[in-house]
Amino acid sequence: MTIFQKFLGATAALALSAGAALADPALIFDLGGKFDKSFNEAAFNGAERWAKETGGTYLDIEMQSEAQREQALRRFAEAGANPIITTGFAMADPVAEVAPDYPEITFVNIDGFLAEIPDNVLMIAFEEHQGSYLVGILAAMASKTGTVGFVGGMDVPLIRHFACGYAQGAKSVNPDIKIVANMTGTTPAAWNDPVKGGELAKAQYSQGADVIYAAAGGTGVGVLQAAADEGIYSIGVDSNQNHLHPGSVLTSMLKRVDVAVYDVLKSGADTQTGQMRLGLAEEGVGYAVDDNNAALITDEMKAAAEDAKAKIIAGELNVVSYYENDSCPALSF
Amino acid sequence: MEILPKWADAVLVPIFSLLIAFALSALVIIAIGEDPVAAVKMMVTGAVGSTYGWGYTLYYATNFMFTGLAFAVAFHAAMFNIGAEGQATLGGLGVALVCLAVPWPHWALALPAAMVGGALFGAAFAAIPAWLQAKRGSHIVITTIMFNFISASILNFLLVNMLRPKGSMDPATAKFPAGTNLPTLHDILGVFGIPFSRAAPANIAFFIALLACVLVWLLIWRTRIGYQIRAFGKSESAAVYAGISPVKIIMVAMLISGALAGLMAINNVMGEAERLVLNSVEGAGFIGIAVALMGRNHPFGIFLAAILFGFLYQGGAELALWTNIPRELIVVIQALVILFTGALDNMVRMPLERIFLAFRRGKA
After folding, report:
1. From the list A16, A71, A90, which residue is nearest B170 (CB)?
2. How far is B291 from chain A (nearest CA, A)?
3. A125, A209, B191, B282: least CB-packed within 10 angstroms?
4. pLDDT, block means (10 residues), chain B with 364 residues
């Protein structure tokens, strides 16, 4: 905790809000919290890496309520923080609302979508369906039962987007494969409910699934645990989670939020604004192979995944995005 | 019977509870190596030290007033309505549908319609548990808790599958048209030449909440149905003997309760977000229980308690912004206040009563 922004006294806070220039960047974490072992934590890790390398400091806040979104943006902007990085799709609209009032500050949002992007806003989107497609291939090849599972967090379009890529990848290997997909819940609590994640994984195991992909934030920890307990495979998400249960975590679908945050912090106020898409080609998404899972990924599996990866990058293979028409060709919800 | 004089019950007990809660919070802050004095200063200046702070404090307080009143009305009929969260969620749906359905020319037309929409949806959602309680004896605590989950699922289904604008990743409705945007305190006070922060979300719904406080007071203490509600709440058998229908009282109390909870949506959905997002209520329904208990289920007490909780929310947000006190600890501070003012009431009351008794004996 020592590298965090040091405690600012009440007087300092008042001085800041009065508009004193402060070049420090700011990071706003979404409701999941910065230690969610997944999406927000990846952003946090990227920022920490930057802080360690440059000795810089940054302001940060974890959202507690919807009303705080705009509030935090304005407060940091008035304090002169630049750039201001936000995580999570729910921050997109507040950013669009606030950014025009502070044209000299660069705002960044990860995961969000805006039809019209203000001049001083950078929207970073990841092609999660491409990465999920690759782990879908690996899952289908590792499965002996012909059934694979998917445990999502909250039932929102973003998570369906993950599931859709995964299902397409699995079906590309085995068109008859059975995909059991469950969402953890309908409230934000679904992002942090490892107990329920574990129960869903066990239920999918009883339906024959022997590889389960968890795209559920902190809930996924329970999915991975249950899979290890049952002696089947699991697939982690966002961060490299292979080390959590070596030998049971088949691989992790990497979403390099940390790299994105690090890059933005590095370029600071000079960050290019507009839309940035990070897919396989940009190494924004991918699958993780390290010492913990090298034995699980056979050469044949690796070749298949690399082949698909090359084809996707070359444009020969199109993984359908759930967003295109709010439906999935390989999976119904 | 009453050992404590009224003023002591209404003023001393909450103040002592608060002091104990704050003292414990200070210990917690010291334990993580921060300065409690600076933290309190920051909370106070952040929440009430500027019109900006007031704007947020009053915005949160407006939410809590509605849900606190909702809880209190049901509580007077001995109904423990834990479902304000779900009723306010559905109230938000009602408000959103009204706002999106018609191209409103002016907020003055949109607001009454949205109020009707929010209240109707909230009341309708409270009607089912109420009916189950009145006719079937299904316990209202259990049913309303379960209905909170149902409301979350309904809203999720509608937002993800039907109300979401095409291409948007965020499960939320489209922005409401400009004709539904409520005037904020900045606009209202500006008319009188009083400067008020433009950024703060407090809006005209605050005054409607104040009006609701007065109306609830009139309802409970100045009308026949209010008397029936109180009589039923004190003793069901006596009320039945007096010719009061339990079914009617349960239904009426719960419908009013649900409507008040649903009305909250004009503040958070129509006034602040100007679109319907998934967790727009974010716990205000549960805070309303603490607000009502702390306010002794009296509208004026609820008004004060709502302001206090608004202060805690906004002050907590300032702490989160400028210190590295983690947000979990800010929740701990808020929870301590709820614990001492709501749950551990007797811990303060009994010693106080003893002191007053001793004092009285001394006089006699």
Report:
1. A90
2. 18
3. B191
4. 74 85 89 88 91 93 97 96 96 96 93 97 97 95 95 91 80 90 92 86 95 97 96 95 95 97 96 89 91 90 93 89 80 83 79 86 75
| Domain-embedded: residue A330 | no
> What pTM did the predictor assign?
0.82
Q: Are residues A122 and A178 in the same domain?
A: no
Inter-chain contact A16–B322, Cβ cutoff 8 Å? yes
First to last CA, chain B: 17
Q: Note whether A236 and A273 are same-domain residues.
A: no
B279 vs A76: CB contact, 8 Å cut-off?
A: no
**Does residue A80 belong to any structural domain of this protein?**
yes
Q: Token match 């039962």: residue?
A: A145
Determine, yes or no, domain membership for A294.
Answer: yes
- Cβ neighbors of B24 (< 8 A, separation 6 or more) are B336
Rounded to whole angstroms, the Cα distance separating A218 from A211 reads 19
Helices (H), chain A: 10-17, 39-54, 68-78, 92-98, 128-142, 157-173, 194-206, 220-230, 257-267, 299-314, 322-325
| Structural domain range at position A54 | 10-126+258-278
Alpha carbon distances (Å) from B286 to A239, B71, B267, B271, B281: 34, 9, 17, 21, 10
ipTM: 0.72
* CB burial of residue B187 (10 Å; 0-12, 13-18, 19+): middle
Query: Look-up: residue for tokens 């919807």?
Result: A66
A133-189 confidence digits (pLDDT tens):
999 999 999 999 999 999 999 888 889 999 999 999 999 999 999 999 999 988 778
